[in-house]
Amino acid sequence: MADSRGGPLVLGIETSCDETGVGIVRGHTLLADAVASSVDEHARFGGVVPEVASRAHLEAMVPTIQRALKDAGVAASDLDGIAVTAGPGLAGALLVGVSAAKAYAYALGKPLYGVNHLASHICVDQLEHGALPEPTMALLVSGGHSSLLLAPDITADVRPLGATIDDAAGEAFDKIARVLHLGFPGGPVIDRYAREGNPDAIRFPRGLTGPRDPVYDFSFSGLKTAVARWIEAKRAAGEHVPVADVAASFQEAVVDVLTRKAVRACKDHGVDHLMIGGGVAANTRLRAMAQRRCEDAGITLRVPRPKLCTDNGAMVAALGAEMVARGRAASAWDLSADSSLPVTDPHVPGEPPAASPGHAHHPHAHGHDHVHEVSKDNLYS
Ligand code: KG4
Ligand code: ZN
């Protein structure tokens, strides 16, 4: 164990969607963050094509691992463990990462840690802002997920409070960008246009904010339809579509709901730290509104820099290092990819080592009474 030198040295592999990410960390210190993205190959299809993603991972895997080791200036033999996203995500894409991680771990004689993609998105903030307070509230918003998670222990206890019942937040950005002919991915370009527009120009609906609606769940499909109809009506009338105002008003509706529900979750659960992760956390309006609303509520906001918010290997390494540091059981060699791995399983442990029964993992020890798991349908649908 490398604790005397600042924590375990762990390599993390992420292939759940279209990014082949390989990161290396020592404890909370980021040493390398190599990412090869196939996003350009998907752009002409307007969304991620699973088969294209899997093939791109295969081609990028070994060079990306080599680049990460070189960037970190460490030898593979120095590693204390190898972590990999075991799920949730695209089955074929995950399989490439899991197979590579197994091969490297087995050949090098290192412990293997199959970890949860969503828990990794939370844990990555340790590389930016140091140890995560326990519990932490996390709002994860990307093209594949929109979840509110309460994390009393990022390695063993993550509880879903709410999730989207239809589109993910990033997906809504991507779809509206398509309607506006702005290209893919839509988030960054809508963010840019919105800066020139008026967020109050059009009052678009705020999904699931009525008195009888579920408090922590999200819905973006009604908003998406409302925006598309508004644009169609303008076009049908032969009128100019004010792209900046539409972008700003749409973005305002998304960000308003996300921040309102996240702050409410913190208050309801007595949590004074909110972390926001996932690709949509790069959104400038989301960052600004979350900052203001958190300040007003006495909550400390933690948002990693954009490169750590989007899918990357460093986040997987960060969670793997935490698993090693806390003595969690390594995964078994028959670890498999699980496209719908529940968020309640931060990692996929094998049999706990006989020498340390105290570290046995109890993934279902906590109550599920008032929670529901992130539906498979919310992922990459
Ligand atoms: O985390 P990520 O790289 O991949 C997954 O989907 O897991 O997130 C990508 C998503 C895309 O939907 C993209 O449009 C969105 O994040 N995104 C943004 C911004 N940058 C990326 N959405 C809003 N504003 C942004 N600045
Ligand atoms: Zn992600």
In short:
By secondary structure, the protein is of the alpha/beta class. It is built from 12 helices and 11 strands.
Tally of DSSP helical segments: 12
Might you state the CATH topology name of the largest domain?
Nucleotidyltransferase, domain 5
The average pLDDT score comes to 91
Beta-strand fraction estimate: 15-25%
DSSP strand tally = 11
Distance between the termini: 41 Å
Report strand order across the widest sheet: 3-2-1-4-5-11
How many domains comprise the coordinates? 2
Rg from C-alpha positions?
Answer: 20 Å
What ligand species are in this complex? 5'-O-[(R)-(carboxyoxy)(hydroxy)phosphoryl]adenosine, zinc ion
Query: Helices and strands, in N-to-C order?
Result: EEEHHEHEHHEEEHHHHEHEHHE
What would CATH call the class of the largest domain? Alpha Beta
* Structural class by sheet pairing and helices: alpha/beta
CATH superfamily of the largest domain: ATPase, nucleotide binding domain
Question: Any overview of this molecule?
Answer:
Helix content is 40%, strand content 17%. The chain is of the alpha/beta class and 381 residues long. The strands form two sheets. A six-stranded mixed beta sheet has the order 3-2-1-4-5-11, with helices on both faces. A five-stranded mixed beta sheet has the order 8-7-6-9-10, sandwiched between helices. Helix 6 (169-179) packs antiparallel against helix 9 (243-269). The longest helix is centred in the last third of the chain and has 27 residues, at 243-269. The chain is globular and about 65 Å long. Zinc ion binds at residues 117, 121, 142, 144, 278, 311.
